[in-house]
Write a structure and sequence with these properties.
Blueprint lengths: L1 H16 L10 E5 L7 E3 L2 E3 L1 H12 L4 E5 L2 H9 L5 E6 L8 E3 L7 E9 L14 E5 L3 H4 L4 H7 L5 E5 L2 H10 L4 E5 H4 L8 E17 L4 H16 L4 H10 L6 H31 L4 H12 L4 E6 L4 E5 L10 H4 L4 H4 L2 H17 L3 E9 L2 E12 L7 E8 L1 H23 L3 E6 L4 E4 L1 H7 L9 H4 L1 E4 L2 E3 L3 H7 L3 E2 L5 E3 L5 E12 L5 E10 L1 H45 L6 H25 L10 E4 H13 L5 E6 L5 E4 L1 H18 L5 E11 L10 E10 L6 H4 L17 H11 L3 E4 L8 E7 L22 E5 L3 H13 L3 E5 L2 H10 L4 E5 L8 H11 L5 E5 L17 E4 L4 H13 L1
Parallel strand pairs: 1-4, 1-5, 8-9, 8-10, 26-28, 32-33, 32-34, 34-35, 35-36
Antiparallel strand pairs: 2-3, 5-11, 6-11, 7-10, 7-11, 12-13, 12-16, 14-15, 15-16, 17-18, 17-24, 19-20, 19-22, 21-23, 22-23, 23-24, 25-27, 28-29, 29-31, 30-31
Helix pairs in contact: 1-15, 2-9, 19-20, 19-25, 21-22, 22-24, 26-27
Keywords: ATP-binding, Kinase, Membrane, Nucleotide-binding, Phosphoprotein, Transferase, Transmembrane, Transmembrane helix, Two-component regulatory system
InterPro entries: CheY-like_superfamily (IPR011006), HATPase_C_sf (IPR036890), HATPase_dom (IPR003594), His_kinase_dom (IPR005467), HisK_dim/P_dom (IPR003661), HisK_dim/P_sf (IPR036097), PAS (IPR000014), PAS-assoc_C (IPR000700)
Pfam families: HATPase_c, PAS_4, PAS_8, Response_reg, SBP_bac_3
Length: 909
């Protein structure tokens, strides 16, 4: 356990204090859909503005790819499901980021928006779409986007009839055929339509930026590569980007008005350039006095292995100082005078400018980490930015950047290990909760949440979530001792934890200090396991052991005790049969007989615990058994009862007398607990148990009987003792009632337990194996045939007085009786003479017993009528007498009527 806790604490340390990254390479499958002139699919040829740009970047960087043509809706699903790697063209949206990656939306391949087309000129405003059938491509951002058509139609509460299709061609065809009133398409696609009967309305939706989309599994390096290439192409006005743009959208030549604009732009650029030159001249003149000081300072600062930058609030590089130019995005001389966004592209430039602005606004040092492509390759930096006044006209910041690439590499490697360890931690069956020194939960694994029956506990107070109890009293763990002394603390398995749903579970747990990287106590780790099922199982085993102990005692007592009771009963019967018996003697004899019957009852109860007290089973209907038990135990009381049957019959194979006794015991206990005033509810249903179950029963079909009362219930302290033999809370009880119930049901392959969750009284649950197929049971005729036939009977018993009393008893009925003391004598008698009935005692001390004797007799006389008798046996030969070669049985002490019935059976045979 201590080793296990050490491993868990070690795992938690990595989970809490380490971070990670991940890379991967991928060959690209590119989905393309027909959206002229962005993408054109014609005669199996794939081209278009977006397609050509993608091809150029991929081929330039030796990236292998293949185009897959399809419809928009299908390709969109394929990208989300990871069946293709790239989808072009596609519009950027925040919502789609959940399912895919995009190139930088600040450098879109194309700007686009959605338009409504129609054959009617009457659609001029959004309200004109009311009641119209509108063709829409599935998942089209011009429909679903934040500023898409769907948003505005809902905003103006306009009813319409959407018709979902998978491509703009289908939209166009439906509009042409008149099957819809209007259609939503991309504005570039309208330029592709060569049909004057189709009009573009003034309705436009969701301006978007067209980008490349990648599935979530694609390596970020590939996405970043396309980002960088796109930025370079867009920034380079002579690149293939503008050549292709003119080719697809201006038929190879610039319109005149664009040429004029370009000339004007050149003139303005020239003027700006002259202004910059003049301004630099002025600045140079004004700062000439500081050159000497600046040179000395620059020499000192340039010796730093890190970066020192002076940057103006507009992003202009005013000074660059470092001894390692590999850390720069460009060489120092190229950087000076340029702005951050001229050198650094994308979101990193935005972050840098935001940090500069925040430092200037707050006049406080700002610290942040960033990744940048520099001369020496991709590097990680930690930047510290502070406002500084050096006499520039522009507000300025001092940017001090430290190269943390090696540190970041180590952290990412450790993060990989962290995720592995985190997966292990989440998979362990024990609950793990980590708290800080403020007793706030900062980590909880999946098992902890499942045991506590809570969705999330991070951020909550430890004492609010971990509610421990012992003997119904709240227990608080010694957290202060853990924090201050660093001790380990373990609790016993008698503790229970109350879940968020107020269910109680037994737990085994420990509490240990959590140390940080400086070996200081940063908090504590609480490791605990749900051992409720284990506790239930152990209690069942303990309960069974107690019953077995009593059984061994009962077994030692039963045989001799029943034999002696039989002797007394036989002689007493002979006394009662005397004529003209004195009244006083008659009264004494009857009292003796009544006492014997009570003694027999006690012995039978004890024998239910003994190994040999096997039930004599038959098919019985539990419905009838329960009704009989209620009649015996509740008649004449003020107790109300209700029986709920799921089926008409619940047939089990059981000893009816013993099962009736079980329910009588339960009903009497309930009656006493409610003081003859309350209600008993019995619910019966069929259930199935799997191979693994906490009740330790065989798998299969069972009948479940729940006996519930409205009494005061059973206290927690007494719950573990109620099935102990001789434990009672009644003044005149013998403490065997529930113990007998448990023993009887155990011998029937079932069980009984107290439902601890029921709080409105007491509820006992009984399980008995169900009979799958009920065959017609042939019952013996129980009527005793009165006959004058005199039988010749052989009786074997090792107890002399039993042989004597039995012989006198049977002879008084007119039968001839031969007695023997052991099996060897019985076999010799069989060889010499014929007998109508052979009665064999099961257990013979120092001689052949009933089972072996019966086997030998069958060899000599296969058709002999053999009856087994016993005061106690541990072989099951009485309960299953026919399996041992016997024709009938009776138990000692016996009633004369039972004996007459058996003799009657032999005559019928």
């Amino acid at each position: 356990m201590n080793c296990k806790k050490f491993v868990l604490i070690f795992l938690i340390f990595f989970v809490i204090f380490v971070n990670v990254g991940f890379t991967n390479d991928k060959v690209l499958t590119v989905g393309v859909w027909n959206n002229p002139n962005l993408s054109i699919i014609k005669d199996s040829e794939i081209s278009g503005f977006v397609v050509d740009i993608f091809k150029y970047i991929a081929e330039k960087n030796d990236i292998k790819y293949k185009f897959v043509a399809g419809k928009w809706a299908n390709l969109y699903s394929d990208l989300v499901n990871g069946e293709i790697d790239v989808l072009i063209p596609i519009a950027y949206s925040d919502t789609r980021l959940k399912y895919m990656k995009f190139t930088d939306y600040n450098y879109p391949v194309f700007m686009n928006w959605g338009v409504i087309i129609s054959k009617s000129k009457n659609i001029k405003t959004i309200t004109d779409l009311k009641g119209k059938r509108i063709a829409i491509v599935k998942n089209d951002i011009f429909y679903t986007g934040t500023f898409g058509m769907e948003t505005y139609l809902k905003l103006y509460n306009i009813d319409y009839k959407p018709v979902s299709v998978s491509s703009y061609e289908e939209v166009l065809n439906l509009v042409k055929s008149g099957d819809v009133d209007a259609g939503l398409i991309a504005r570039n696609f309208y330029n592709y339509i060569n049909d004057r009967s189709i009009y573009e309305t003034f309705l436009a939706f969701q301006p978007v930026r067209i980008v490349f989309a990648f599935n979530k599994k694609i390596n970020d390096n590939i996405v970043n590569l396309f980002d960088k290439e796109l930025q370079n192409l867009i920034n380079d006005k002579s690149s293939i980007y503008y050549v292709k743009y003119n080719h697809y959208f201006h038929n190879g030549s610039l319109h005149k008005k664009y040429v004029i604009v370009i000339y004007l732009a050149l003139i303005i650029t020239s003027i700006l350039f002259l202004l910059i030159v003049i301004l630099r001249k002025i600045i140079k003149d004004r700062t000439s006095k500081l050159i000497d000081i600046n040179k000395r300072l620059t020499t000192i600062l340039s010796a730093t292995p890190d970066l020192i930058l002076l940057i103006a609030e507009d992003g202009e590089y005013l000074e660059v100082l470092t001894s390692n130019e590999e850390l720069l995005a460009d060489f120092r001389d190229n950087l000076l005078g340029k702005k951050v966004k001229d050198v650094i592209q994308g979101s990193v430039a935005d972050k840098i400018m935001n940090i500069i602005q925040k430092a200037l606004d707050t006049n406080e040092i700002q610290i942040f980490r960033y990744e940048l492509d520099v001369i020496g390759g991709k590097r990680f930096f930690e930047g510290r930015v502070k406002p500084i006044d050096l006499g520039y006209k522009k507000r300025t910041v001092l940017w001090y950047a430290i190269d943390i690439t090696e540190t970041e590499k180590i952290l990412r490697e450790l993060q990989v290990e962290k995720e592995k360890l985190n997966s292990i931690l989440k998979s362990v069956s024990e609950g793990v909760v980590v708290i800080d020194r403020n007793k706030k939960i900062i980590f909880a694994n999946k098992s902890a949440c499942e045991i506590l029956e809570i969705d999330e506990c991070v951020g909550k107070s430890f004492d609010d979530v971990i509610r421990l109890y012992k003997d119904e009293e709240r227990v608080f763990l010694p957290l202060d001792d853990i924090f201050n002394k660093g001790i380990n603390f373990e609790i016993g398995k008698d503790y229970k934890i109350k879940t968020s749903k107020n269910n109680e579970k037994y737990i085994d747990d420990s509490l240990s200090p959590l140390f940080d990287s400086e070996s200081k106590i940063a908090g504590a780790v609480f490791v605990f396991a749900d051992i409720t099922d284990k506790m239930i199982y152990e209690r069942e085993v303990l309960k069974s052991d107690k019953i077995d102990t009593l059984g061994r005692f009962a077994a030692g007592l039963a045989h001799d005790f029943n034999n002696y009771l039989s002797i007394i009963k036989n002689y007493n019967y002979l006394i009662l049969q005397k004529e003209n018996l004195d009244d006083e003697i008659m009264s004494i004899a009857k009292n003796i007989d009544a006492t014997i019957e009570k003694s027999i009852g006690i012995t039978k109860q004890l024998l239910t615990f003994a190994k040999g007290g096997e039930p004599v089973k038959e098919l019985i209907d539990l419905n009838e058994v329960i009704k009989e038990a209620i009649s015996l135990s509740l008649s004449g009381t003020g107790i109300q009862y209700n029986i709920n049957f799921e089926d008409d019959k619940f047939i089990v194979y059981a000893d009816k007398g013993q099962i009736v006794q079980v329910f009588v015991n339960l009903f009497v206990n309930a009656k006493d607990a409610m003081q003859n005033n309350g209600k008993i509810e019995v619910n019966i249903r069929n259930i199935s148990l799997q191979k693994e179950n906490i009740l330790n029963l065989s798998p299969g079909e069972y009948v479940e009987i729940r006996v519930r009362d409205t009494g005061p219930g059973i206290s927690e302290v007494l719950m573990s003792k109620i099935f102990d033999p001789y434990f009672t809370t009644k003044e005149h009880g013998n403490g065997l009632g529930l113990a007998i119930c448990y023993s009887v049901l155990k011998r029937h392959g079932g069980t009984i337990y107290l439902n601890r969750e029921y709080k409105n009284g007491a509820e006992f649950v009984i399980l008995l194996q169900k009979v799958k197929e009920v065959k017609t049971q042939v019952f013996k005729n129980e009527n005793i045939i009165e006959t004058d036939k005199k039988l010749k009977i052989l009786y074997m018993d090792d107890e002399y007085m039993l042989r004597d009393s039995f012989k006198i008893l049977l002879e008084s009925m007119g039968h001839e009786v031969i007695t023997v003391s052991k099996g060897e004598e019985a076999i010799e008698a069989i060889k010499k003479d014929n007998f109508d009935v052979i009665i064999l005692d099961l257990t013979i001390v120092g001689g052949m017993g009933g089972v072996d004797t019966a086997k030998e007799i069958r060899k000599i006389k296969p058709d002999a009528y053999i009856v087994v008798t016993s005061g106690y046996s541990d072989t099951g030969a009485v309960a299953n007498y026919s399996d041992f070669g016997f024709d009938n049985y009776f138990l000692k002490p016996f009633k004369v009527e039972e004996l007459k019935k058996i003799l009657s059976e032999s005559i019928k045979r």
